[in-house]
Amino acid sequence: VCEEAACPNLGECFSHGTATFMIMGDICTRRCPFCDVAHGKPKPLDSDEPEQLAQTIKAMRLNYVVITSVDRDDLRDGGAAHFVACIQAVRRHSPQTQIEVLVPDFRGRMEIALEVLSAAPPDVFNHNLETIPRLYKQARPGADYRWSLTLIQKFKAFHPQVPTKSGLMLGLGETNEEILAVLSDLRTYDCDRLTLGQYLQPSRHHLPVARFVHPDEFKTLGTAAKQLGFTHIASGPMVRSSYHADLQARGEAIA
């Protein structure tokens, strides 16, 4: 994902032994207009992928990995069992490597997905809200704000020892008051960690940028998040969901 997305933090993360991998193919069953992943009918799952992923992570000698995926609404469990297979394979080959999962919303499949994930809980559970509820119909068609919050809360109830995490991209037309309301909701729904970054339009066919948020605003929002009780916050224009995930996991503060 790091290379395909041309992430601005690639070199920094690689130097820390951190990388993000996307599983379950490159075709998504959703069509979110902010996202550059292709939409359509996905291919069947590759049963060899967990082992191949684990071998790659071992060869790269990574200390911390983020495993994410496309939405797989075509699967009974939303792909939860494939996440578990990947987690188990990585732990067999690289037992010291910490694993964060950045999961889809498992729409209509939350209970079964959470039950399946209990077989191999990650070290960090991440699910991004992406934006404020007013913009969901525009930015996240097919998703539901409260559903996403509930997914975070229910995972935390199952695994209170596992840190929960979420992120927002700013610049889609939200106000700072609306952002703060979302941060408050995240804390109410037992989210521990937070990332805030600037939305950048992948192409002219995607949602346009409504504004570029000043770095000082990111700093102010980060301070507000700390006051709300988030344990770790990464807030800045170039921050992405897995930015400094390794440092957050070690308990280091991120500006």
Question: Topology of this structure?
Answer:
Blueprint: H1 10-15, E1 18-23, E2 27-28, E3 38-39, H2 49-60, E4 64-69, H3 80-93, E5 98-102, H4 110-117, E6 124-126, H5 136-139, H6 145-158, E7 164-170, H7 176-188, E8 193-198, H8 215-228, E9 232-235, H9 245-249
Helix pairs in contact: 2-3, 3-4, 7-8
What number of structural domains do the residues give?
Answer: 1
Q: Main beta sheet: strand number and arrangement?
A: 7 strands, parallel
Q: CA-to-CA gap between the ends?
A: 24 Å
Number of helices: 9
CATH superfamily: Aldolase class I
Helical coverage, percent range: 25-40%
Poorly predicted regions? 2-6
Structural class: alpha/beta
The CATH topology turns out to be TIM Barrel
The residue-averaged pLDDT reads 88
CATH class: Alpha Beta
Task: Compute the number of strand runs.
Answer: 9
Measured by DSSP, the beta-strand proportion falls in: 15-25%
Order of helices and strands: HEEEHEHEHEHHEHEHEH
**How would you write the strand order of the largest sheet?**
1-4-5-6-7-8-9
Q: Which architecture would the CATH scheme give at its second level?
A: Alpha-Beta Barrel
* Overall 3D shape: globular
Cα radius of gyration in angstroms: 17 Å
